[in-house]
């Protein structure tokens, strides 16, 4: 029977967790609703490196329910919004969740949230991976944080 040394075994394990399996999420932020009791929205930039995956769910401690959505121009130029079950992520191709496009609708948000504070977003993927990322809270009329 052949034996592996600890350093070689450790390298073999770490090789399976390399950058090719990473998902990066940047610039996460939440816009508060203009009217109390209405939904807010979360936005971020996301990219899967090395292999395809799919975003299947998002949650945050500041909302009871979150749904993946996409806004698009409908008939007659009217904007429409559709719920999404998943968002496919192609390896090496960034995806954007931004106003006027894909976003996360946040329902029944915690009362009294203040712009300028920070919370967390938990993203769940088809591969079983989960990411917990910080998200800046901005007011209803404010743009994306810098």
TrEMBL record:
Gene3D superfamilies: PCu(A)C copper chaperone. InterPro entries: LpqE-like, Lxx211020-like, PCuAC_sf. PANTHER family: BLR7088 PROTEIN, COPPER CHAPERONE PCU(A)C. This is Copper chaperone PCu(A)C. It comes from Sphingomonas qomolangmaensis. The lineage of its organism: Bacteria, Pseudomonadati, Pseudomonadota, Alphaproteobacteria, Sphingomonadales.
């Amino acid at each position: 029977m052949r034996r592996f040394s600890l350093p070689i075994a450790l390298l073999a394990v770490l090789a399976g967790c390399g950058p090719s399996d990473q998902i990066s999420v940047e610039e996460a932020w939440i816009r508060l609703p203009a009217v109390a009791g209405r939904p807010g929205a979360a936005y971020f930039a996301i990219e899967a490196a090395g292999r395809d995956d799919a975003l299947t769910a998002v949650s945050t401690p500041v909302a009871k329910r979150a749904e993946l959505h996409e806004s698009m121009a409908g008939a007659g130029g009217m904007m429409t919004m559709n719920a999404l079950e998943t968002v496919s992520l192609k390896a090496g191709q960034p995806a954007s969740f931004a106003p006027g496009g894909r976003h996360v609708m946040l329902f029944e948000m915690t009362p009294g949230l203040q712009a300028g504070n920070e919370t967390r977003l938990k993203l769940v993927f088809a591969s079983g991976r989960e990411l917990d990322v910080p998200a800046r809270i901005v007011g209803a009329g404010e743009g994306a944080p810098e």
